[in-house]
Amino acid sequence: MTKYYADHLLEAIRLHNAHGWSYNELAEHGYRYSKGVNDIIRGTFNRFVKIGATESDVAAWLNGEYLTNVKALEYHLRFVGGRDRQISSVTLAEELGVYDIDRLRCMLRGMSITHYDLCYYTDTLDLDCLTIR
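RE: above sequence
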């Protein structure tokens, strides 16, 4: 996503968190974006609102900080990477562009407990598998 669109997305999320406005209500309050901006960020905005993300969560996702922000990783698993699949932590790390596989495994273990509706992570005999529902 380009910086132009990312700035508009961050502004929309900030206004949502501050006032509780939906994407359509932003336009009603004078924050009108062009049709191109609307088409590109409306879906992303609605998905972040669905998972309860804050402005810092969105910024972390835009910067690729998946190992420091659970919401950024959750957004990727729910909406970007595809559903109904199994993947190893090494393959997921390559997909995300991260290098600390041990940190990723720790986050996936935690997400298996806190986000049990999204994913299930097993690690047995150094063979791991993440099941994304």
